[in-house]
Design a protein that fits this description.
Blueprint: H1 5-13, H2 18-28, H3 32-48, H4 62-67, H5 86-96, H6 99-107, H7 112-123, H8 127-140, H9 145-158, H10 161-171, H11 175-188, H12 191-201, H13 204-216, H14 220-227, H15 235-248, H16 253-266, H17 270-280, H18 287-303, H19 307-315, H20 325-338, H21 342-354, H22 359-370, H23 376-383, H24 389-397, H25 411-418
Helix pairs in contact: 1-3, 3-5, 3-15, 5-9, 5-11, 6-7, 6-9, 7-8, 7-9, 8-9, 9-10, 10-11, 11-12, 12-13, 13-14, 13-16, 15-16, 16-17, 17-18, 17-19, 18-19, 18-20, 19-20, 20-21, 20-22, 22-23, 23-24
Length: about 425
């Protein structure tokens, strides 16, 4: 099966036919790329589900959103989210992109065409143009909500979090805006503001954010108080609340600590989370949980710059999860690349290919490994035959002159690559 990207969104929404759902689940078992898209989309939907449907972006915005979730670092400023946490950027795009056009159609304001031009430029990755159009609209009508929201989002992408928040404060203190401000604070790393704004929003998503901050501060009792009323919520908010509560109410102290690590990771404190995971995950009492989460956190550790921690976690695996033995070796290959043991790392991946590792999953692992090196020749050996945004960005970050040829032929990133 090729990457069934068109199935992921209806699967998350519960609209995918049962037969297709089973086929997708089988594919997900061996495909890192689709699994990451699924995880990113679930997180995004869970944190944006409670927002008004009237500003939900068109479906053709989703590919641009996916490109901004969990991609290799140091991507071009025009097309990535330099300095912006993946969640905040993705959620911000979902909340803002398309809002200007919809609001203009509803209100008929004179600044509508300017906002529409800003939305179009934002969708195409032309951020300076988008900023200029939103600024023109604000100049003509300083109270226009879609223009303020669009300008706030472009400031977020620039990493100017104070300006992004200032513009949102001009919009007002309604629940949706307070949640957007919480996401800006998330990108800034201001966890106190994330907690306070999330609580003030009164939205279930905001309560989960606030609970995660309490968990990051080792305030499990306060987190449980916020999460307990959300356990009966439908969708991803309820799923997240139940997952956290299961860890917090476990008799295993390590499982309770795992809740804190998960919250730290979700809030962008990834190095801290990985450092603690090296001690917490091997201590999990359930062997199934220990084996599963050791593999998950090993991948997180090596991509967060801690190959030694990743190796400790890999060594804690007694028996790999079903059909995931190849992934253990792939992660060891990433550790070798991260340590500069390039020939050994490439050999590990070549052996996996010869042994019949799942093609889609192996391609994703190769791209991830390529993003860990700054040697263009090594990056080309790993990901030179892989096409896609992630492969192109990994090659570009390594300084490979072939990066543009790996880019997709459509979309904002493809347009950017063709223009270089």
């Amino acid at each position: 099966m090729t990457h069934p990207y068109d199935w992921i969104e209806p699967y998350v929404d519960g609209d995918l036919p049962a037969e297709d759902a089973r086929a997708l689940e089988s594919h997900l078992a061996s495909c890192d790329s689709c699994r990451r898209d699924l995880e990113g989309l679930r997180t995004l939907v869970g944190r944006a589900r409670s927002l008004p449907r009237s500003i939900e972006p068109p479906k053709d915005h989703w590919p641009a959103v996916r490109q901004k979730i969990q991609r290799p670092p140091r991507a071009p400023w025009l097309l990535a989210v330099a300095g912006v946490a993946g969640l905040a950027a993705a959620a911000g795009f979902a909340l803002i992109a398309g809002a200007g056009v919809l609001a203009w159609l509803a209100s008929g304001t004179d600044v509508g065409p300017m906002v529409a031009q800003g939305d179009a430029a934002l969708h195409d990755g032309r951020l300076p143009d988008a900023e200029a159009h939103y600024a023109d609209a604000i100049g003509a009508d300083p109270s226009d909500r879609p223009a303020l929201e669009g300008a706030s989002y472009t400031a977020l992408l620039r990493g100017d979090y104070d300006e992004s928040d200032r513009l949102l404060r001009l919009v007002g203190d309604d629940p949706d805006t307070l949640l957007r401000r919480a996401l800006v604070a998330h990108a800034k790393g201001d966890l106190d503001a994330v907690r306070d704004l999330g609580l003030r929003s009164g939205l279930p998503t905001g309560q989960v954010l606030a609970a995660e901050v309490h968990l990051a501060d080792a305030e499990g009792v306060k987190a449980r108080q916020l999460l307990a009323p959300l356990a009966n919520e439908s969708g991803q908010v309820g799923e997240a609340a139940r997952a956290y509560l299961a860890m917090l109410t476990s008799e295993d102290p390590a499982a309770q600590q795992h809740a804190e690590l998960t919250a730290l990771w979700a809030l962008g404190k990834r190095q801290v989370a990985c450092d603690s995971a090296v001690e917490v995950i091997p201590a999990l009492q359930s062997s199934d949980d220990r084996n599963l989460y050791a593999l998950v956190w090993a991948g997180r550790a090596v991509t967060s710059g801690d190959p030694d921690g990743a190796e400790v976690l890999l060594d804690a695996i007694d028996l790999p999860p079903i059909d995931q033995a190849w992934r253990v070796y792939a992660t060891r290959g990433m550790v070798q690349i991260a340590r500069g043991q390039n020939d050994a790392g490439v050999a590990t991946f070549e052996a996996l290919a010869s042994a019949g590792a799942p093609g889609d999953g192996l391609s994703d692992a190769l791209v991830t490994a390529a993003a860990l090196t700054r040697d263009p020749a090594v990056a080309e050996r790993l990901a030179g035959s892989v096409e896609g945004v992630a492969a192109s960005r990994a090659l570009q970050a390594a300084g490979s002159p072939t990066w543009a040829s790996a880019a997709p032929h459509d979309g904002a990133y493809g347009a950017y690559a063709r223009g270089q």
